[in-house]
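Lab notebook page, bench 4
Experiment: in silico fold of construct C2
Operator: M.H.
Input chain length: 387 residues
Purpose: comparison with the prior construct
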Amino acid sequence: MTDPASERRRLATVLTNGGVLKSPWLRAAVEAVPRERFLRPGVFLDEGRTWRPVTTADTDPDEWLKIAYGVDTLTTQLDGHLTADQADESVIGVPTSSSTDPATVVGMIETLDLATGHRVLEIGTGTGYSTALMCHYLGEDNVATVEVDAQVAARADAALEAAGFSTWTATGDGLLGHPFRAPYDRTIATCAVRRIPYAWIRQTRPGGVVLGTVGSWSWGTGLAKLTVGDDGTAEGSIVGRSSFMHARAQAVVPVAGDLSARTAYADRERRTQVSPLVLEEWMPAFLAEEATPSAQFVRATDSDGSPLRYLFDPERESFAEFLIDDESWTVRQGGPVALWDDVERALVAWQDAGAPEIDSVRLRVTPASHLYWIDQAPSLRWEHRIT
């Protein structure tokens, strides 16, 4: 029978060899915290179009440990309520809670630059595994964690208790932080947000760090690391790519219905300077999100199999439709905002600047706005006002 401790040591070695796990204290935590406990009652494995439930009750113990100490993200809830023990066969659904892959979890904790005595606020408890890793080093009284889903929070709290960590676990909207334990030295979010909530800045002490994933699409999002200043603002940069489920309150409702009807009347039409297909790449997608923060990129297929691409902005009642002819693209735009004009200007300026990566993006957060900019491209500057 497989020894869980040996699996934890193996995972720690994999993460160390991959350059993700660097701190001795965090390696000790990875080798000590039983991830398998935080996956109960089970997980859903991705089968492409369906999710196969795997539970502790119905799975060979060795196989369960192999799953628990793999390198993949493991989905633990679908559609806001369904857990693996409630499904008898493969199902269709949308993931709403998961245990993020260990490399991402460990990498984010390393990025926090934790030190003994730090007080941490975690937004998005999920299974509680990352909470336990921080508690192992900082002590349970120095970690507070907030989860919006009451059922998810209850399972995480039970797992943390079983693992020996009676930390501060709260059910609530993490976008509001957790003022009752503030101020914090570090705030970390394991969900994506359209913008960093100012509550996180306000509840983090000057000199403290706020770490969270920003962006409104499921890709093209970036990990923002900000240092809080004495004046109540925070400044930093996007330190790399990052992908998380969005906070429940900010989850995007997909554009539905007859797309041809929604794009029937265009105000203007022209050839594009840049192919819209670049929006399927990470950095161009990030730029598009900043240029048109309330727009969605929609991919579909025509009856003849040719690709259909759209930008829709329901808030500003505008659209851009892209049509391909041989290898050239035409854009049809309708509504008060020329969405593609804004995006294309950003993409051209980015290309002219040498196509810098996402870690070139700087960010400043104040009570009134979010300001993004790229030093290499002075025209790439966006200020999003908070109303």
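Observations: The CA atoms of residues 255 and 312 lie 8 Å apart. The chain has a mean pLDDT of 93.
Next step: discuss at group meeting.
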